[in-house]
Design a protein that fits this description.
Elements lengths: L1 H13 L2 E3 L2 E3 L2 H9 L1 H6 L2 H5 L6 H7 L2 H9 L2 E7 L17 E6 L4 E6 L3 E6 L5 E7 L4 E7 L2 E6 L4 E6 L13 H10 L14 H13 L3 H5 L2 E4 L49 E8 L2 E6 L4 E6 L5 E5 L9 E2 L8 E7 L2 E6 L4 E7 L1 H16 L16 H26 L15 H24 L15 H11 L8 H18 L42 H14 L37 H5 L3 E2 L4 E5 L2 E6 L4 E6 L2
Antiparallel strand pairs: 1-2, 3-16, 3-19, 4-5, 5-6, 6-7, 8-9, 9-10, 10-11, 12-13, 13-14, 14-15, 17-18, 18-19, 20-21, 21-22, 22-23
Helix pairs in contact: 1-10, 6-10, 7-8, 10-11, 11-12
């Protein structure tokens, strides 16, 4: 069971799991530990860095009931996805995305981020997030939408709507087509007469014809993923949104017969004086709640469409990028918004970051199931003198059934979201591995089999006296190693022959006896020092060095260092003790130099771009419209209200 819990914890550490519509990852504990003082006093830094995957003591530490209760009390947590703050990751470093203006949910398990400079990036929701370049060459992109494996980008300076085929289903793969498909494609391109038959051409001939047609295409059209959707009625397109999601692989937060539009904001807080100044991002959190971002106040708000009440849900107003509980975290110019179930994604122009705001209920539920799995088999940390309660066989079966049903529901949720009823997730689908859940069911069935054999076949009441610790893998391996003394690889028949005798030997070794084996002082075997052959010899001795001790001032310095940097000073420089991810070292962000605050993205440059015509040029910034007339050599200034 220890190995199964380690695998479950590994899934929680590697992937942003979907738990009832809420994302959950072990990095949430690292973030909450820095912002919640109660967690900092009961969680060590080594337990939240989770670098030693084989140390189940760290798992026991994060599964304390007090940790679960504090995590559940925090309504939301804000985490930085891009750039990565705690590890060195080649594809996820600061400066990879320079001016993020919009974000949307892409293929399941990924997000799409639009860079104002001319690029479209994709982030896989692994920890750390893997960032890859999807397409580039866009001209002043301002908005992004995703539908049916296609990303739609709004380009304001062209003007046009571009689309990118994420899965590559529009690209022509010649050698992957059969002869009938090749013939059909050639007829569509007028390379072959429509009345021609397949028997007139060979497969190789059709492939050569298509390759010749590809060579006639411009290189930018052949190799670029950016394709233009021309709409003549568009003058200055600034925003695009998906309007149909019936055939999508995911269920987006798009509701029928509902249109959200903001022209002039007059809403205010009912319990404060902060006014919504400059709204930018807009998304539906649910059917009756509208989510908006204010780029001047650096906050997130939720607007109730029925009562018109505005509620502050994230951001403390400071223009910087700091993680933590959603109300204490800070956002640097929040721009684009996207909602996936109950999880919010935010792009920030000033801090050049993509953030995730998620409920903590999913993480608390996973930790509670891990804690229940350990408690069922009385697994505890002896180093901390933790007491464990012994469970009966019936209680163990009941607990494991509840754990299995919880993760079964998570897998069913993923299957329903992706419309794949037979899906067996392995991690990239934002779920624990299907085989790991099957292992939980296998252990449950083994306990049921033992309980039935004791009750109906042996007819003894051993069920209430069984110590479940004896059923763990380590005990079984120790018992099996004793059986291999005679046969290196025993067969089933030999295993059955030696089972009873090996069990008797194991019991005798653990039974208190009245004699000792070669350990008594008056034993028959003589001591070397008392032997005549060695009595006149002087044995070498090694003087022990006096142990060094710390003064009170030195101890105070170490304690203050630990309090400031959340970890003790590294005392060893030994192999496997001086790695950058070891718990004895400081996190990477402690060694980073303070960075200068990034400049904000001017929003007027996004919405009103310079439009070049035959007669004049115009640009708009901060409500001032400038008109340049070449014929009269004049520049006119107009105030736009």
């Amino acid at each position: 069971m220890v190995h199964v819990v380690k695998r479950l914890h590994g899934s929680l550490s590697n992937w942003f799991l979907q738990i009832d519509g809420n994302r959950a990852n072990a990095v949430f504990l690292s973030v909450l530990r820095q912002s919640v003082p109660e967690l900092k006093s009961i969680l060590s830094y080594a337990s939240v860095r989770r670098k030693d995957r084989m140390d189940f003591g760290c798992i026991i530490e994060i599964c304390q009931q007090r940790v679960i209760d504090i995590t559940r009390d925090q309504e939301r947590v804000t985490v930085t996805l891009i750039p990565e703050k705690y590890q060195l990751w080649n594809s996820n470093q600061k400066g990879t995305i320079k001016q993020p203006v919009d974000v949307t949910v892409g293929l399941y398990g990924t997000i799409l981020v639009l860079d104002y400079e001319d690029k479209l990036f994709q982030g896989r929701l692994h920890y750390p997030v893997d960032v890859s370049l999807v397409a580039e060459g866009f001209q002043t992109p301002t908005s992004l939408a995703f539908m049916n494996a296609f990303a739609f980008i709004c380009e304001s300076s062209v003007p046009c709507i571009s689309y990118v085929d994420i899965t590559g289903q529009l690209s022509l793969k010649i050698y992957a087509l059969n002869k009938q498909e090749l013939m059909q494609k050639c007829q569509e391109l007028d390379l072959v007469d429509a009345e021609a038959e397949d028997s007139q051409f060979t497969k190789k001939k059709l492939q050569e014809m298509l390759k010749g047609w590809q060579k006639t295409l411009p290189k930018e059209d052949m190799h670029s993923k950016r394709r233009v959707l021309n709409v003549e009625s568009l003058k200055i397109p600034t925003c695009v949104a998906a309007a149909k999601t019936e055939n999508s692989e995911r269920k987006d937060n798009t509701y029928k017969h509902r249109i959200g539009r903001i022209e002039h904001i007059t809403l205010q807080h009912k319990d404060g004086d902060d006014e919504l100044l400059s709204l930018h991002g807009i998304a539906f959190l649910n059917e009756n709640t509208l989510l908006v971002s204010d780029r001047d106040l650096n906050k997130l708000f939720a607007v109730d469409l029925e009562s018109k009440e505005v509620r502050h849900i994230g951001g403390n107003g400071e223009q910087k990028c700091s993680d933590g509980e959603s109300m204490s975290a800070s956002h640097g110019q929040p721009l684009g918004l996207c909602v996936e179930q109950n999880t919010i994604y935010v792009t920030e122009g000033a801090s050049q970051a993509i953030r995730m705001v998620s409920n903590t209920i999913g993480l608390a539920n996973v930790l509670e199931r891990l804690k229940l799995s350990f408690e069922t088999f009385s697994i505890h940390d002896r180093r901390k003198n933790d007491e464990s309660r012994t469970h009966t066989l019936d209680e163990a079966i009941e607990n494991l059934i509840s754990v299995g049903h919880f993760f079964d529901d998570c897998i069913d949720f993923i299957r329903g979201t992706t419309n794949k009823p037979s899906l067996k997730p392995q991690g990239p689908e934002d779920s624990v591995a299907f085989k790991t859940v099957e292992s939980v069911h296998m252990i449950t069935n083994c306990l049921r089999s033992i309980e039935q054999n004791l009750r109906f076949k042996l007819q003894v009441s051993y069920g209430s006296h069984i110590n479940l610790l004896s059923m763990l893998t380590l005990q079984v391996e120790h018992h099996f190693s004793n059986m291999r003394d005679r046969y290196p690889s025993p067969m089933v028949l030999q295993y059955g022959q030696q089972l009873l005798s090996t069990a008797k030997k194991t019991i005798k070794r653990r039974t208190n006896t009245g004699y000792h084996y070669y350990t008594h002082r008056s034993s028959f075997y003589p001591l070397p020092e008392q032997s005549p052959a060695f009595s006149l010899m002087e044995f070498p001795k090694k003087d022990r060095k006096q142990q060094s001790s710390l003064s009170a001032d030195e101890k105070d310095d170490l304690m203050s260092f630990r309090k400031d940097y959340c970890q003790s000073v590294r005392q060893k420089t030994v192999r496997q003790q001086s790695t950058m991810y070891n718990a004895g070292t400081l996190p990477l962000n402690c060694y980073e130099e303070p960075e200068a605050r990034s400049e904000q993205i001017e929003m007027w440059d996004l919405l009103f771009l310079r439009q070049k015509t035959r007669k004049w040029q115009c640009c708009m910034k901060r409500g001032i419209l400038l008109l340049s007339i070449p014929d009269t050599l004049q520049v006119r200034v107009m105030q736009v209200s």
